[in-house]
Amino acid sequence: MEPIRVLLVDDDQAVLEMMQRGLESQRFKVTPVTGVAEALARINTDTFDVLVTDQRMPGPADGFTLVSAMRSAQPEVLTVVTSGNPDTQAAMAAIVLQADEILMKPHDVRVLGELIRKRMATHKGSARTARESVAAILKREATAIIADWLERLKEDEVLSSVLLGEGDRTGHLPRLLQDLVSRLNGSHLLTNKQHRISAYAAEHGMLRFSQGYSIEMIVDESRLLQVSIFHGLHNNLHCVDLSTLLVDVMTIADEVDSQLRESIGSYLQHAGRQPAA
Fold first, then answer.
1. What single DSSP character describes residue 46?
2. What is the 3-state secondary structure (H, E, C) of 154-197?
3. C-alpha span between 56 and 59 (Å, rounded)
4. Do residues 154 and 206 touch, judged by C-beta distance below 8 A?
């Protein structure tokens, strides 16, 4: 009988090694991983029977991210989330909808092994979720992303100090998101993209100058946009196509940064043409 294949994820190297030794002593085949990025790569390239992951991980992604990814890529896998934080009621309520088991730390590795074998004897997996491209998700979630961006902006004392209507604040975002979707789909040539970005982003830079924005404020609103975009993707990890996720994330960052550079350049040119006070 083939050993049960376990993807074990924990950012604490000492804990990871201890759990690996304990599970291997119980005849599990363990693949230890310390980071979310490597774990996502393993989920896409290797086959497992069980995922055991810590809930809290460094960076914006966490154990819930991996559970969602595994549900999408390998829905038959048993998922177990461990947590050392006793105050995780809200997080646990969300994760329990996806994870098969939740264990609070510290826990005995022998108990974990017994739990895995018991659950594997009756585990039937979950229904496979249809995957969507990042471009499709951005297109579908555009309204929600813009709304999230606007709420984050309202919480920023500096950005919200410029009194503008919602239309004036968000008027550039639908076109920017359309540009992102187009680039992710590869539906236009780079030269055409650069020409369109230059015309549109230059207009945005001049508009923000006339509205009283500083360059720092333009940078901050661009940063908040990336946060809102990635928040929208995080909420859809259960259905995103993970095979291109990392490349698509880099593409999004590059596209938003390119638009930002064009806007700032136009802002500075427009400011330089204004008569001295």
1. S
2. HCCHHHHCCCCCHHHHHCCHHHHHHHHHHHHHCCCCHHHHHHHH
3. 9
4. no
Q: Which residue has the tokens 């982003």?
A: 201
- Report the distance separating Cα 263 and Cα 146, nearest Å: 19
pTM of the model: 0.56
List, as one string, the DSSP characters of 92-159: HHHHTTT-SEEEESS--HHHHHHHHHHHHHH----PPPPPB-HHHHHHHTHHHHHHHHHHHHHT-HHH
Amino acid at 180: L
Report CA-CA distances (Å) from 268 to 88, 107, 153, 172, 226: 47, 58, 23, 19, 23
pLDDT at 122 over 60: yes
Tens of pLDDT, residue by residue over 172-203, are: 888 889 888 988 887 444 444 444 555 677 88
Q: Pull the structure tokens for residue 41.
A: 């790569």
Domains and CATH numbers, the chain: 5-122 (3.40.50.2300), 134-272 (1.10.490.70)
What share of residues in the chain are helix, strand, coil (percent, to 5)? 60, 10, 30
Contact 9, 33 (CB under 8 A): yes
* Sign of the Cα pseudo-torsion (89, 91, 93, 99, in order): negative
